[in-house]
Design a protein that fits this description.
Elements lengths: L5 H22 L10 H23 L10 H32 L6 H30 L56 H7 L16 H4 L1
Helix pairs in contact: 1-3, 2-4, 3-4
């Protein structure tokens, strides 16, 4: 889930205020007086969400010796926080619409009482909005402090790390058909097989050429 954007909440509040103000122009005279019963409900919900966010944040950071928080429970709290913040923005917009409309009717007792109730509802809606945003912030996983460092990334493993490099004087692995590597001071490796076979496979240098054979005519010699 993406974090709640403040501009979305502002847009909801502005639209709700504009629609409420437009409707009150036509129907305010037929509405009953406003009551303050919504204010305690909003404050109780705000307190519950703030306490839940504080406890959840402590459990995520490991400051409370309790079992880890299930991921499904955190997702539900994020959904609750999003719904609460949008509802609070809507109620704040409605209350603001009442306040804008009733601000020019303070001479009458009923509109003045409705303005007080609308102002209290607006303040309680803002408190619920802040508590919902706090709960959503508490559901975030804290960043690893090692990610903020500018340390260079670790070297990538080489695909040839499993191959060992032979040291001087040690036996050298050899593949068929490849010349035998020689190091200064190292003994000549011995391989089984006849000298002719080793010469054909390149394991030993070729033999020096033989001197031409001279034949003696026995009849002439006698």
């Amino acid at each position: 889930m993406t974090p709640t954007r403040p501009r979305l909440l502002v847009l909801i509040g502005v639209l709700a205020a504009a629609v409420t103000w437009a409707l009150l122009i036509a129907v305010y005279a037929s509405l009953p007086p406003l009551t303050w019963t919504l204010v305690p409900a909003l404050l109780i919900a705000a307190g519950a969400e703030a306490w839940t966010g504080r406890d959840l944040r402590a459990r995520i950071q490991g400051r409370i010796p309790a079992r880890p928080v299930p991921a499904l429970f955190v997702a539900r709290m994020v959904a609750l926080a999003k719904a609460s913040s949008q509802t609070a923005a809507l109620l704040a917009g409605v209350s603001a619409g009442f306040m804008i409309y009733l601000s020019g009717m303070l001479g009458a007792p009923t509109p003045r009482s409705d303005l007080v109730d609308a102002s209290l509802s607006f303040a309680a809606s803002l408190v619920l909005l802040m508590a919902a945003l706090f709960l959503e912030w508490c559901c975030r996983v804290p960043r690893d402090p090692r990610q903020d460092r500018d340390d260079p990334p670790p070297p990538r493993p080489s695909p040839f790390d499993h191959l060992s490099v032979p040291s001087l004087g040690s036996s050298v692995p050899r593949f068929p058909g490849s010349p035998v590597p020689r190091f200064p001071g190292s003994p000549v490796p011995r391989f089984p097989g006849s000298p002719a076979r080793r010469r054909r496979s390149g394991l030993c240098p070729p033999a020096p050429p033989l001197a031409p054979t001279r034949f003696v005519d026995c009849a002439a010699a006698s």
